[in-house]
């Protein structure tokens, strides 16, 4: 048989029907659901008098709208309350597992899927959410879908899809001390730009990727979409299997499952439509300066000026971004002063992220000019962090310690930036208004965010003592 890529194998395993020149019909193994993109989908089912085809393959949680403060209080915002009440009622009516607000396993959908062992190698995983690419870290084909597609998957457990091309992003060598998976992915997006991955499913390969932990691999795959890609994936290996072993919803005969998963990685000699190679040693800690994740530089450099770009469109984009961000261009990144720091989101709110931030924060105080918060990605992450005493480290340093949810990653709940506020954030999007109208977001790693909270401005984590 012709050598195949990881992507091709998963695709081949899931095509239910394909007519020449038409979209393929794919079987979906796992459908994750949240409150924002599901209400109309369920309504559609009701109107058509249909049931959910495979309720046991469908898992729901509330994450975007949930308040991250006291959960014993009623939800103040009527729209948020309605969305969450609606999801709860829909899951009950259609027989779907739902992790409700006060469930210890509630959390950001992309954090709880892997944590509970729902996410597994070789699967096709969809969710009405662009950061579904996160699950590709397990060697799954995972991507976001729209609300009408959510309805289609609920009704049929299948999805119509055009086949993307494959793009290999290979990172050779080892990351230097202080350089994290977040820096790696920001760097890659900076290199390929936010539409470099358009039309592709990315497979991340190379020594720098192989040596990442599962949580770090999730950080990388999470942001695939910010590089324009349909999905991002990493071949499963022993790191993957050891992470999954013993988790709640993994296959009962785990060793037999592993034996099958071992067939998934790309065969030697298989061809990608395109391959790009990078050197881990070239990557420094990254900070975004603009209004998309590709507008990024190393912490030890300067905010660019429009004139630094050769292309006139890029110059215009840069000028508009600088204006929104309240920057002139030419400032040293380490001179940028912060008002807020947000450590959270499906990119960087797993236990290893919180450990990395706590290691920096331990024994220090948050700058008096900064309001800093830490929002665990899930109830389980929160419990574990508390068992390890990380909450204490954060609280003693002056960080706010919250309940799990999307929080200030996007302004759909009470956690928001005020206009003009500058924020160091471990999330994945720095679009205009993303964290609140007029808010200014700089994307960084958890360690860099913690250091910035303490110093009151960005610091090169490699100099941190
Ligand atoms: C609300 C949801 C549809 C959205 C997404 O698709 O990604 C959100 O999660 C985001 O990160 O912007
Ligand atoms: S944490 Fe942010 S990026 Fe992730 S699902 Fe929630 S809103 Fe989207």
Indicate the topology.
Elements: H1 6-14, E1 15-17, E2 24-27, E3 30-33, H2 39-47, E4 58-61, H3 78-94, E5 97-99, H4 109-115, E6 124-127, E7 141-144, H5 147-156, E8 158-161, E9 165-172, H6 181-192, E10 200-205, H7 207-210, H8 214-222, E11 231-233, H9 238-244, H10 254-261, E12 274-279, E13 286-288, E14 296-298, H11 312-325, E15 340-343, H12 351-361, E16 371-374, H13 379-387, H14 390-397, E17 400-401, E18 422-425, E19 440-443, H15 446-455
Parallel strand pairs: 3-4, 3-6, 4-5, 6-7, 9-10, 9-12, 10-11, 15-16, 15-18, 16-17, 18-19
Antiparallel strand pairs: 1-2, 2-8, 13-14
The protein binds 3-isopropylmalic acid (IPM) and iron/sulfur cluster (SF4).
Residue fraction in strands: 15-25%
Rg (CA only): 21 Å
Supply the CATH class of the domain at 6-161.
Alpha Beta
- Helical content class: 25-40%
State the helix count: 15
CATH superfamily of the domain at 6-161: Aconitase, domain 3
**Low-confidence spans: pLDDT under 50, at least 5 residues?**
none
Shape assignment: globular
Number of strands: 19
CATH-defined fold name of the domain at 6-161: Aconitase, domain 3
Identify the bound ligands.
Answer: 3-isopropylmalic acid, iron/sulfur cluster
What does the largest sheet look like?
Answer: 5 strands, parallel
Alpha-beta content class: alpha/beta
Mean pLDDT: 97
**CATH hierarchy: architecture of the domain at 6-161:** 2-Layer Sandwich
Cofactor: [4Fe-4S] cluster
Binding site for [4Fe-4S] cluster: 346, 406, 409
Catalytic activity: (2R,3S)-3-isopropylmalate = (2S)-2-isopropylmalate
Keywords: 4Fe-4S, Amino-acid biosynthesis, Branched-chain amino acid biosynthesis, Iron, Iron-sulfur, Leucine biosynthesis, Lyase, Metal-binding
């Amino acid at each position: 048989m012709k050598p195949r890529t990881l992507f091709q194998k998963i695709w081949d395993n899931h095509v239910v029907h394909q007519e020449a020149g038409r979209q393929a019909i794919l079987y979906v193994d796992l459908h994750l659901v949240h409150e924002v993109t599901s209400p109309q989908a369920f309504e559609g089912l009701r109107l058509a008098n249909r049931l959910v085809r495979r309720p046991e393959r469908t898992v729901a949680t509330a994450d975007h709208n949930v308040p991250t403060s006291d959960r014993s209080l009623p939800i103040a915002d009527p729209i948020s309350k309605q969305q969450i009440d609606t999801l709860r009622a829909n899951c009950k009516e259609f027989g779907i597992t739902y992790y409700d607000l006060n469930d210890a396993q509630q959390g950001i959908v992309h954090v709880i899927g892997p944590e509970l062992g729902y996410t597994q190698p070789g699967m096709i995983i969809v969710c009405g959410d662009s950061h579904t690419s996160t699950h590709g870290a397990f060697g799954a084909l995972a991507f976001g879908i729209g609300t009408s597609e959510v309805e289609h998957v609920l009704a049929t457990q299948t999805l119509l899809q055009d086949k993307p091309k494959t793009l290999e992003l290979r990172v050779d060598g080892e990351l230097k001390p202080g350089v994290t998976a977040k820096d790696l992915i920001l760097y890659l997006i900076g290199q390929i730009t936010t539409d470099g991955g358009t039309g592709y499913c990315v497979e991340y390969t190379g020594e720098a990727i192989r040596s990442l932990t599962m949580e770090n691999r999730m950080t990388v795959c999470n942001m695939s979409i910010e590089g324009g890609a349909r999905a991002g994936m990493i071949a499963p290996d022993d790191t993957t299997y050891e992470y999954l072993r013993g988790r709640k919803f993994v296959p009962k005969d785990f060793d037999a499952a592993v034996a099958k998963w071992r067939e998934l990685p790309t065969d030697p000699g298989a061809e990608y439509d395109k391959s790009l190679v990078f050197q881990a040693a070239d990557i420094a800690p990254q900070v975004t300066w603009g209004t998309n994740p590709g507008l990024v530089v190393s912490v030890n450099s300067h905010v660019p000026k429009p004139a630094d770009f050769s292309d006139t469109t890029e110059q215009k984009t840069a000028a508009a971004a600088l204006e929104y961000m309240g920057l002139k261009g030419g400032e040293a990144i380490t001179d940028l002063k912060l008002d807020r720091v947000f450590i959270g989101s499906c990119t960087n709110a797993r236990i290893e992220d919180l450990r990395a931030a706590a290691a920096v924060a331990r024994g220090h105080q948050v700058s008096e000019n900064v309001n800093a918060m830490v929002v665990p990605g899930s109830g389980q992450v929160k419990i574990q962090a508390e068992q390890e005493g990380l909450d204490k480290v954060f609280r003693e340093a002056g960080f706010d310690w919250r309940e799990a949810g999307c929080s200030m990653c996007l302004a759909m709940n009470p956690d928001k930036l005020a206009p003009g506020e500058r924020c160091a954030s471990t999330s994945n999007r720095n679009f205009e208004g993303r964290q609140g109208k007029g808010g200014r977001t700089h994307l960084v790693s958890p360690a860099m965010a913690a250091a910035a909270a303490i110093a009151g401005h960005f610091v090169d984590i490699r100099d941190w003592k």
